[in-house]
Amino acid sequence: MSRPLPAAALFAAAILALTAAGVPGQQPDKKGDKNKFAPPPVTRPDGATLKTIADKTAQLREAVTALKAKKTPDDVLIEVEVYLRAAENIVRFDEWLHKDSGKWALTTLDRGLERAKQAEGGTAPWRAEVGRWVVRAYRSRIDGSIQPYAVLLPADYNADPNKRWRLDIVLHGRDGSLTEAKFLAQHDKTKLAPKDLGYIQIEPYGRGNNAYRWAGEDDVFEAYVAFDLAGGRADQTRHVLRGFSMGGAGAWHVGLHYPSLFAAIGPGAGFTSTHGYIAKLPDPLPDHQEKCLRIYDAYRYAENAFNVPVVAYSGEKDAQKKAADNIENALKNFPEKLRFTHLIAPGLEHQQPPEWQAKCEAEYRKYAGPGRAPAERVRLVTYTPRYGHCDWLTVHALQTTYERAVVDIRVEKNVVTGTTANVRELLLSPPLAQPGEAFRVVLDGDVVEVRGKSSVFLVREGGKWAVPTSPSAPWPRKRVGLQGPIDDAFMRPFQVTAPSTPGWHPATDRHAKAADAGFAKLWDRYFRGVLPRPHDPRRAVARDPANEVLFGDPQSNPKIAGVLPSLPITWTREKLVVNGVEYDAATHLPVLIYPHPKTGRYVVLNSGHTFGEADLKGTNALLYPRLGDWAVIRPAPTDRDPAAYEVVAAGLFDENWQFPKK
Asked: Is residue 44 one of the residues assigned to a domain?
């Protein structure tokens, strides 16, 4: 019995590793090396090349416009338009970060013009190409942007139209000169697959160098969904997730956060902790930041290796060997049997030569055979409902978010038994020996009889597990998809509303406008999309309510005035009261995330991502939340950053979305 990936609701990641070459990647932080993550110097093409690029960009833009006029299906159109967007981006961001950047831009444009002709009939014939790389695209559910990914189909893919294939999702390492144009050119159709390739390979762009965090995490699953919806014939029980360096970090965190979605994971190098990887990081950080590190620190989820085979790779002399060492240390006293292999290449530093890739492949084959069925036993560790799914178990809510939670549960015939720690709500859909008949759940000694259903939702109240008597749980409560922190709002569809009129006070008004503009700029450059605004036609990609991100105050933004009565703060022209403390509203602003009172999604005030441009330029381990669920800030603009601010107070809401009792 196999289960398809619930990709629209879950997330994963992928690796860019060329089959026939060693894989370069991100190096660990070193003290005093402040410029190690700076982008390469700009090397602009000569004038003649720039003119050719401009001319061909205009031609491709006209071709895309013509395809739109013909009402070309969107899934076909975007696989042409992705080339146009790549060419436009490299020019407008001045991202000539490699001596071959001009050549990559021209290759991108030539392929785009070729695609435009192929698409005139409203179909995508390039999708049938086998034995060579093919660039594909999808329209992101998060922001409506067009994002590229690449597909490599085996040469004999079409020999048997009924065959289902193993699928490898491969995550790329950090590359300071990476752009869409480079990604597209490196996956040009002239690059052939090995003749004996026995699986499909997907490589997501992942919005650049974010280590497959936040929107980059969601992008990997979206790439898979796009491939699947276009008729891809992947065996959904035979997915291998692998990557090296930054891709290894992504494979560690995605593989251990979603362990049941993969037949095996193959992380190479990377990092699995924040402390110990980032040089000179204060230890401890403020409490709310320390707790939010538990979202992505993969070593805390190490015991989820119980559910998925791990084939780790490290160079013996690579400082990033510590990534796998951290996981092994976390499992040192774990009493359960694991399928865990750590291949260590003697004498090698930060590289994975072909012979070691082949050794990893030999290990993957042990686990990626057909016929994998749902597990009879599931054992899941999590620190947030965001990562509460494993096979037929979904943790919907914890008793205390960011504290360790464990569910250990098994099914035998029509009886489900197990134990939990720090879990408040869960959904069970067990693979029953006799589906359709009644089954029994014995959880922490509490007995629940289930009749006429194949699944059951359980809530622990008053120390006992039971089916909830009320159809709706108390509101608001932290649970999956509504657990925070602020940065979580940008992992699902969102829209941003800027101030529309002058605000109450000049200083806070200037900050709100600058923060909105600054977020738009960072999202554009580092997450490769345009901020969705109300009535933006790209929002049609989202079929459910979006998170509302609102900048300003109750006077400058009517939407803030509309939700303010439902928020746990007091905010008038004269004063701001947050967590029982009163602030001068002329010089302070609230920043927070909270359940939206009407849509049931999030509302966010005065914030985009809580990390900044310096963090996005630096090691991607820096992309952790800075403000938790709420903060009070004092605008402190500078010439370089008109949206700069001082944090006066910050923290996390409790499980009822209230300020913790003092």
From this structure: no
* pLDDT at site 435: 87
Give residue for tokens 């990390």. Answer: 611
Q: For residue range 550-568, list pLDDT tens digits in order.
A: 999 999 999 999 999 999 9
Q: For residue 583, what are the β-bridge partners?
A: 576
Strands (E), 125-181: 133-139, 146-152, 165-171
Alpha carbon distance 252, 13 (integer Å): 9
Strand order in the sheet with 570-571: 570-571, 575-578, 581-584
What pLDDT sits at residue 1?
28
Examine the domain organization and report whether 418 and 333 are in the same domain.
no
What is the helix (H) or strand (E) element at residue 209, kind and residue range?
Answer: none
447 and 500 share one domain: no
Under 8 Å CB-to-CB from 316, ≥6 apart: which residues? 344, 345, 346, 347, 348
Residue 563 lies in a domain: yes
Average pLDDT over residues 27-55: 77
Cα gap 300→326, rounded to integer Å: 9
Can you give the residue range of the structural domain that contains 344? Answer: 245-367
Residue 433 pLDDT level (bands cut at 50, 70, 90): confident
Q: Place 404 in a pLDDT band, splitting at 50, 70 and 90.
A: very high
Q: How far is it, in rounded angstroms, from Cα 387 to Cα 396?
A: 9
pTM (2 d.p.): 0.93
CB 256 within 8 A of CB 340: no
Mean of pLDDT values over 406-435: 96
Pairing of the two strands 589-595 and 645-651: unpaired
**524 and 618 co-located in one domain:** yes
Residues 267 and 387 in one domain: no
- pLDDT value at residue 472: 67
H or E segment to which residue 595 belongs: strand 589-595
Strand order in the sheet with 389-390: 389-390, 393-398, 423-428, 456-461, 464-466
Distances in Å between the Cα of 110 and the Cα atoms of 53, 107, 118, 294, 638 are 10, 5, 13, 45, 44
Q: Are 216 and 13 in contact (CB under 8 A)?
A: yes
Which pLDDT score, from 0 to 100, does residue 603 have? 98
Mean pLDDT of all residues in 141-158: 96
Considering only CA atoms, which of 319, 310, 309, 274 is closest in space to residue 294?
274
- Domains identified in the chain, total number: 3
- Residue 193 corresponds to which amino acid? A
CATH number at residue 347: 3.40.50.1820
Do 642 and 505 lie in a common domain?
A: yes
**Same domain membership, residue 260 and residue 343:** yes
What is the percent of the chain where pLDDT is above 90? 88
In a domain, 604, yes or no: yes
pLDDT at 584 over 70: yes
What sign results for the dihedral spanned by CA atoms 3, 7, 11, 13?
positive
Same domain, 491 and 636: yes
- Report pLDDT for 542: 54
State pLDDT tens for residues 520-548. 999 999 999 999 999 877 655 556 789 99
Helix (H) or strand (E) holding 74: helix 74-92
Is 413 inside a domain boundary?
yes
Token pair, residue 254, equals 């995605």
The answer to whether the beta carbons of residues 339 and 310 sit under 8 Å apart is: yes
Q: Is the same domain home to 309 and 448?
A: no
Residue 3: closest CA among 235, 233, 242: 235
